[in-house]
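Notebook entry, structure prediction.
Reason for the run: the old model in the group folder had no record of what sequence produced it. Starting over properly, with the input documented here first.
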Amino acid sequence: MTRKTFGKPLISHQIIRSKFASMIRAIESCHSWIEELAWHIKITPNAYQQPAIGARVALLKVQAGRVLELCVRESQQVFGGLGMTKDGKGKVVEQISRDMRVFVVGGGSEEILDDLSIRTILPSKQTERPAKL
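New structure, fully documented this time:
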């Protein structure tokens, strides 16, 4: 990073390091969940036909979307005005920020996926109606 603020490299500020730490924690947690789910799919016969697997995939998609939104927002903060330009050092951040809603909403909104997952996981007696996967 070559950007400086208040005469110091940007990364020397505690708040910037904290933003990176938050993003790393979120990404690593999500990645671990992906690995765990991939393992369950690998060892479960007919995994793609199991409602519990579908419910976990839906929850993971919601979490991954939230992590993406967090990382885009924090990256825009770190890049400042450069995070809004279509060229230069912030162009990737700007491109992802424009495409983010398609990634997050495509395949189902958070509310629908959360509800589908919970109705699938909980016994049907406890929910209004069972989910159709």
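Summary: DSSP finds four helices and two strands in the chain.
The old model has been moved to the deprecated folder.
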